[in-house]
Amino acid sequence: MNEKLSVSIIIPVYNAADFLSRCIDSILEQTYSSLEIILINDGSTDNSGEICDRYARLDNRIKVIHQKNAGVSMARNAGLNAATGDWIGFVDSDDWITPDMYAKMADAAIKSGKKIIVCGHADHRISGTINERSFTKLAGDMEANKALQILISDKYFEGYPWNKMFERKYITRISASFNESIHFCEDVLFSFQLFQHTHGIFYIPDILYHHCLSASSAMVRFNQKRLTELKAWEKIISLSKGISKKLTNLAKHRYTQAAINIFYMQKNNDTQNQQRLRRKDVRYKWLYFMSWHVSLCLKASGFLKLYLPILTRRLWIWIKKPK
């Protein structure tokens, strides 16, 4: 195999002892060996740090950074600063990848000349349900505007960094990094900045990445940091205005959708002593509910969450109740 490109794989680690070995093993089993593996132990309180150090002693391609807990954005930025590879990849510590992932990604990078490579992935839920996100019709080169619209609409592939590979020099040239003051959708903002300035991407429909959705996922419950998601979408809206009206409207739809979900979660959680999002603070409602680009199902769900949140929650509990 002609391994012309070196790839730095950045793995933020926080209290991931139960899954970390599976994750690292899947990377060590790659058929593509020109790898630099950077483990950032983000102040774990379990034995994740010891696991990282043990693997570093077993394989000299592994680097370990220990830091005080500062969040996934700062951990990923630490990895970016330490990376020396030609390309950058990201893997979450509770996920795993197929043995040929980086061989296929590197091959696509060499043949296509693109600075961003995206692959298919599978979402694994704790219930055992698997949702495969693979779209053959998108295979190959994709022009930038289409890629941005897909990234924003969440229709085929999302803004997560872990099913993507980015040229490191390109990241450096446009000074892209993860916004450390934003704790939700900071990855979408990071990917948007990179997609925005590139001349298209290359998409591989093969399912090469396996992503775990756990019951304790940060997306399930409300906390005050969730409000920063709206800041991420505000920044994306601002960036998209210089590209196209359609892209701006898609970003506004995602803002509204996020705001409705936050409002709904607040209504069904004890948030009396926290900053609250009011119904009138949910922006672009008219655009959202009248748009052809928002499905009828999402509109109906959004309307119920926004105007009948308590009743909607009770109905949902009743529907999910074992019969």
| SSE succession | EHEHEHEEHEEEHEHHEHHHHH
Which stretches of 5+ consecutive residues score pLDDT under 50? 216-220
Largest sheet: 10 strands, mixed
Helical stretch count?
12
Approximate shape: globular
Assign the CATH class of the largest domain: Alpha Beta
C-alpha-based Rg, rounded: 20 Å
Mean pLDDT: 91
Strand content: 15-25%
How is the CATH topology of the largest domain named?
Spore Coat Polysaccharide Biosynthesis Protein SpsA, Chain A
CATH architecture of the largest domain: Alpha-Beta Complex
Offer a concise description of the structure.
The chain is of the alpha/beta class. It is 42% helix and 19% strand.
Question: Can you put this structure into words, describing what you see?
Answer:
By secondary structure, this protein is an alpha/beta fold. It has two domains: 7-213, Spore Coat Polysaccharide Biosynthesis Protein SpsA, Chain A (Alpha-Beta Complex); 224-320, no CATH class. Helix content is 42%, strand content 19%. The protein has helices at residues 20-28, 48-58, 72-82, 101-112, 144-153, 168-173, 186-197, 228-240, 245-267, 285-290, 296-307, 309-320; strands spanning 7-13, 35-42, 62-67, 87-90, 96-97, 116-125, 130-133, 140-142, 164-167, 201-213. Strands 1, 2, 3, 4, 5, 6, 7, 8, 9 and 10 form a ten-stranded mixed sheet that branches.
